[in-house]
Specification:
Length: 230
C-alpha cells in the first residue's frame, strides 16, 4: 500500500535543482519542503517527520554523509542520495550508511520522481498509515490517536468525526483548512454546517490540551484552522 500525498524533504543547496525536483514530485502528488544546508535538513526532519528525504552530498554546515548518519541514528526514514560523485566507493558508502537509493547528477527528473515513488512504496508496506506531527501520532488504519507527553503516549478518546478531522489535518501540518474544506473531507451527509465544524474543533482542541498538546490547533481568523507542526 502506498503513502498518500507523502511529504518529501529536499535537502539541496542549489535552488535551481531543488526547484526542478520539487516540481516533478509535486506533479506526482507529493508534498515538498526544502532545506539548503544539512543543519536545516535535520531540524526540518525532526519537526515535520517527512516520509522521504532527497539528500545532496555536498551541502553547507553539515554534508550529506553527516546528515544521513544522524537520520539513521534517529530511525528509518527513507533516503535517496543526490550527488555528482559517481565513484563506486561513494555509492557503497551511501548504501553502507543506510541510503535507500543513489542518484548521480546530472539526472533525469522524471526518473528521480519514479525512484521516489518506488522507495515510498517499499517503505509504505510497514508504516504508511501512521501520521506523526510533533507529539501527535495518528494510526489511520488502527483508528488510534495519541499524544506523547513526558515520554509516554497519552491515548485520545475521539468521536468518528473528531478522528477524521485530526487525521485529515495531520496529513498537511501547517496548512490552513477552511471550514468548507473540513466539511467536504470529514463530514459526509447532512452534518455539514460551518458552526458544526467549530463545535467539533473546539472539543478536539480541548481533548488535545487535556492530553498535553496545548495550542496544537490554531484558529486562523477569517480563514479556518491549522494544525501546528510542533
Amino acid at each position: 500500500m502506498e503513502i498518500t500525498n507523502p511529504l518529501v524533504l529536499i535537502a539541496e543547496d542549489e535552488a535551481d535543482i531543488a526547484d526542478i525536483i520539487a516540481a516533478y514530485l509535486e506533479r506526482e502528488g507529493m508534498r515538498t519542503v526544502r532545506a539548503a544546508d544539512g543543519r536545516t535538513a535535520l531540524d526540518l526532519h525532526a519537526l515535520l517527520k517527512p516520509d522521504l528525504v532527497m539528500l545532496d552530498v555536498m551541502m553547507p554546515k553539515l554534508d550529506g554523509w553527516q546528515v544521513l548518519s544522524e537520520l539513521r541514528r534517529r530511525g528509518d526514514t527513507p533516503v535517496i542520495m543526490l550527488t555528482a560523485l559517481d565513484q563506486d566507493l561513494d555509492k557503497l558508502q551511501a548504501l553502507r550508511i543506510g541510503a535507500d537509493d543513489y542518484v548521480v547528477k546530472p539526472f533525469n527528473a522524471v526518473e528521480v520522481a519514479a525512484r521516489a515513488r518506488a522507495v515510498l512504496r517499499r517503505a509504505g508496506a510497514s508504516n504508511n498509515r501512521v501520521l506523526r506531527v510533533g507529539p501527535l501520532e495518528v494510526d489511520v488504519e488502527g483508528h488510534l490517536a495519541s499524544v506523547l507527553a513526558d515520554g509516554e503516549p497519552v491515548p485520545l478518546t475521539l468521536t468518528l468525526t473528531e478522528f477524521r478531522i485530526l487525521a485529515h489535518m495531520a496529513r498537511a501540518p501547517m496548512r490552513v483548512f477552511s471550514r468548507g474544506d473540513l466539511i467536504d473531507a470529514c463530514l459526509p451527509g447532512g452534518d455539514a454546517l460551518e458552526r458544526t465544524v467549530d463545535s467539533h474543533l473546539s472539543k478536539l482542541r480541548r481533548k488535545l490540551e487535556d492530553a498535553g498538546a496545548s495550542g496544537f490547533i490554531n484558529n486562523v481568523r477569517s480563514v479556518g484552522y491549522r494544525l501546528a507542526a510542533a
